[in-house]
Every structure is written in C-alpha cells, then in structure tokens.
Specification:
Radius of gyration: 17 Å
Region (Disordered): 78-97
CATH topology: Rossmann fold
InterPro entries: DUF7504 (IPR055927)
CATH superfamily: P-loop containing nucleotide triphosphate hydrolases
Number of strands: 9
Number of domains: 1
Number of helices: 7
Pfam family, one: DUF7504
C-alpha cells in the first residue's frame, strides 16, 4: 500500500470513527477469523469506555466469547433446536420478523444512549452475527430496509456497527448489500498461518489495504 493510499485510508477511517459507521465483515465461515475481527471491532482490550450490543441471529460457535461480559447487552434471536434451551432473550423460531428485530435493536441503541447520558464518537459498538440467516429467510429488499434502518440508528449516535456475513467478498451475495456499508473487511486464516489476516476496503474513499495480521 503506497504512502498516499495509507494517508487516505487513515483519514477515512478516522472520519468513520468520528461520525459513525457500518462495516460488513466477510470471509469463510471459520470461527477464529470472524471472532478475532469481532473482538477488535467491539473494542475488546481497550481502556476506553465502550457500550457493546451483540445481536445473534445465527447458530454461530463462540457466541459466549463475546457475550459473557456483563457489560455487553445481548439480543439473542438464534433459531432454537428441539430440546435446546434459549439463552439471553427468548429466540422463539428465529428472526422471522425483521421489523420486530429492527425495532428491538433500535430501542436498545436508544436505551444505551439514554442511560449513558449521551455517547462519544465510537463509544457504542454493535455486532450483528450473522446476515446469513436473515438472507436465507427473507426477501433481499426486506433485508436491505432492515440494514439501512439499523445502520442509520447506529450512525445517528456516532456508533460503529459491524455485520458478519460468511461469504466471499467477490460473490453476488456480498455485492448485493455492500453499498449499504461504509466499508468491507475481509478476514482469512491462510493454510499454515498462525494469525488471522484482514484486508479493508473503504467504499467512499475507494481505498483498500493489503492483507495484514489482525
């Protein structure tokens, strides 16, 4: 990545942190890749104040690694298999009603802002895991409206929302929704590698990074 591109990327990323953002996280459905990216985007390990909201709609492994902190607010709408016990809030039959889920997420964002007495830029971090279940169960136009409204609500409080979608960036599925987001983050764990890698693509600035260790 050339020097001019690095400067453009750094400035664009700083702007997203100041004014709120929506980021699409794509890549193969490997637990370690998406979890590593999620922890970083939620601000784990930071000494800065964070308010975290995690929305679960998919039966992804490793959910407890993000939700066992009492400071994390959880909306659990994962499908419940026969004989399983729902955790957090009741999941019912899964995210069958996007309007209801949208309202619940927006209400949670508003509640967090109200309880905090206002939020600084980047203080609210929201994770949606994952888009796959929503796409499989709904018309794409419905999913677009849902994402647009949720991302707008998070941006309005200068928060940062990332949405996991375990598909390849170059595929039709990711392309369908990419324009709703400020950027796309690819994650991968190359064969024989010890560390997860990431590559960022910021849409408005039209700049991409090289693959780097996450």
């Amino acid at each position: 990545m050339a020097g001019d591109s690095i400067g453009t990327f750094t400035q664009a990323l700083a702007s997203l942190k100041r004014h709120g953002s929506g980021l699409l996280v794509v890549g193969a459905a490997a637990q370690e890749t998406h979890l590593a990216a999620c922890r970083r985007l939620l601000g784990d390990g930071s000494d800065q104040l964070r308010h975290r909201l995690v929305v679960l709609t998919d039966g992804v492994p490793g959910a407890a690694d993000r939700t066992d902190d009492e400071s994390v607010r959880v909306i659990d709408r994962r499908p419940v298999t026969r004989g399983a016990t729902a955790s957090a809030s009741p999941a019912g039959d899964g995210p069958s009603d996007l309007v209801t889920l949208e309202r619940e997420i927006i209400a949670a964002v508003e509640s967090i802002e109200r309880e905090a007495g206002g939020l600084d830029p980047g203080e609210l971090r929201v994770c949606l895991d994952s888009l796959r279940t929503l796409v499989d169960g709904h018309d794409p136009a419905e999913v677009e409206r849902f994402l647009d409204n949720v991302l707008t609500a998070v941006r309005d409080v200068d928060g940062m929302c990332h949405v996991h979608f375990p598909v390849e960036r170059g595929g039709e599925a990711a392309a369908r929704f990419a324009d709703l987001f400020d950027g796309t983050i690819e994650v991968q764990l190359p064969a024989g590698a010890r560390h997860v890698e990431q590559r960022w693509h910021l849409h408005e600035a039209d700049v991409s990074t090289d693959w780097v260790a996450l």
